[in-house]
């Protein structure tokens, strides 16, 4: 069998089963695990899967540039954002992450809401300018242009003084065993730091992010208490999350 044919079969198996294991692929093709791992490395370098210990997971499409991501799954993002916005009660302090779903979230907040929003996203902060009763706290730092958020030591230091009721986390990957992940190392540190400053972390996850992984781990799946998904999400994707003790909210 040609290498290209084998790689095609690996990707088909990954698409149908949600993960592949190097040992099983080795047995399936009658080849050494070293050969299979080389195939997985090459597919990873082409952006076609995400290698993890022992095998590979589907790669998240949510690592594309902000403008491109903004066009993806727009209806699902609006529904998820609407459900998230409804969770913020008057008088609460909520941390809102960067990202396209978060930018949609602030559009869904009623103008009459009296609350405090903490964010490291200039886009989220500007989106709240016309909300007269929402106090906006913008965390400073180095601007990471891919996601339009601030990162770095200054941002982490500023977060250490915050105690929030809710943190709405944006991710690029949600997987029951690989956990929560994102496409940038500094963003992973920031998201973990923000989760530590909130009583409840709520992950905003459109279907493309479920059962997928990116290069940098934010933390175990249990870092989140709740995950908001679109209403039509396959139960097979939701069940492992619920079994891990996560509350899944269908938007």
TrEMBL record:
<dbReference type="Pfam" id="PF08220">
    <property type="entry name" value="HTH_DeoR"/>
</dbReference>
<dbReference type="InterPro" id="IPR001034">
    <property type="entry name" value="DeoR_HTH"/>
</dbReference>
<feature type="domain" description="HTH deoR-type">
    <location>
        <begin position="3"/>
        <end position="58"/>
    </location>
</feature>
<keyword id="KW-0238">DNA-binding</keyword>
<dbReference type="InterPro" id="IPR050313">
    <property type="entry name" value="Carb_Metab_HTH_regulators"/>
</dbReference>
<keyword id="KW-0804">Transcription</keyword>
<dbReference type="InterPro" id="IPR036390">
    <property type="entry name" value="WH_DNA-bd_sf"/>
</dbReference>
<dbReference type="InterPro" id="IPR037171">
    <property type="entry name" value="NagB/RpiA_transferase-like"/>
</dbReference>
<dbReference type="Pfam" id="PF00455">
    <property type="entry name" value="DeoRC"/>
</dbReference>
<keyword id="KW-0678">Repressor</keyword>
<protein>
    <submittedName>
        <fullName>DeoR/GlpR transcriptional regulator</fullName>
    </submittedName>
</protein>
<dbReference type="InterPro" id="IPR036388">
    <property type="entry name" value="WH-like_DNA-bd_sf"/>
</dbReference>
<dbReference type="InterPro" id="IPR018356">
    <property type="entry name" value="Tscrpt_reg_HTH_DeoR_CS"/>
</dbReference>
<keyword id="KW-0805">Transcription regulation</keyword>
<dbReference type="InterPro" id="IPR014036">
    <property type="entry name" value="DeoR-like_C"/>
</dbReference>
């Amino acid at each position: 069998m040609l290498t290209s044919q084998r790689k095609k079969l690996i990707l088909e198996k990954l698409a149908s089963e949600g993960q592949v294991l190097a040992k099983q692929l080795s047995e399936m093709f009658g080849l050494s695990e070293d050969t299979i791992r080389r195939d997985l490395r090459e597919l990873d370098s082409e952006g076609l899967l995400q290698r993890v210990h022992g095998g590979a997971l589907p790669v998240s499409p949510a690592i594309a540039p902000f403008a491109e991501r903004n066009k993806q799954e727009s209806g699902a993002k609006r529904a998820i954002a609407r459900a998230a916005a409804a969770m913020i009660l008057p008088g609460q302090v909520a941390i809102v992450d960067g990202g396209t779903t978060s930018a949609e979230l602030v559009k869904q907040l009623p103008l009459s809401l009296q609350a405090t929003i903490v964010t490291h996203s200039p886009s989220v902060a500007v989106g709240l300018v016309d909300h007269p009763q929402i106090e906006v706290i913008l965390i400073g730092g180095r601007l990471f242009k891919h996601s339009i958020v601030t990162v770095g030591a200054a941002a982490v230091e500023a977060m250490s003084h915050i105690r929030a009721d809710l943190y709405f986390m944006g991710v690029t990957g949600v997987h029951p065993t690989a956990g929560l992940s994102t496409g940038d190392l500094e963003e992973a540190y920031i998201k973990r730091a923000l989760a530590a400053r909130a009583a409840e972390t709520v992950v905003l996850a459109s279907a493309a992010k479920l059962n997928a992984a990116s290069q940098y781990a934010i933390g175990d799946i249990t870092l989140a208490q709740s995950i908001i998904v679109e209403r039509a999400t396959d139960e097979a994707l939701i069940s492992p999350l619920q079994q891990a003790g996560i509350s899944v909210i269908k938007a």
